[in-house]
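Quick log. Single chain, no ligands specified.
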Amino acid sequence: MANVNLDDWQKQSSDNQKKYKHFLKVADKNKVLKLLPKLHDEAFEKVDCLTCAACCKNYSPRFKTTDIKRISKHLKMKESVFIETYLKLDEDGDYVTQSHPCPFLGANNFCNIYEERPSDCKRFPYTDEDVILKRPTITLKNSTFCPAVFFVLEKLQ
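-> predicted structure:
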């Protein structure tokens, strides 16, 4: 597998969107799934989320009912107050943060509720699971703001 240059990765990702889209459409699922754990680990040896935090600065995870219960309990808030304070319903009917960056993102890019964070945050950027193939639209979007997704897609080519 070729080396991946993370310098100017955003431009490279933008330039390669058609290539990625085609790859995700025709990829051998079993072969890709076998490679993902190693590529995921390799990506995070090179990418430090705390220097980036683009996901937390620009997007919101879905807050599922179990997330809302767990986080509101952790914050010692009623669920209804937690929802009213921090969340809104998006066009898909999912709870997401009212504002960007995420209200739980600290100035140092640390998450103030890291141990209780939503399951979407724990799983992001999905580079070690089948979501990368099952939801190509999400994968393509993620590749434009997450260097780890860019890295994995480049390695899979």
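Strands lie at 87-89, 95-97.
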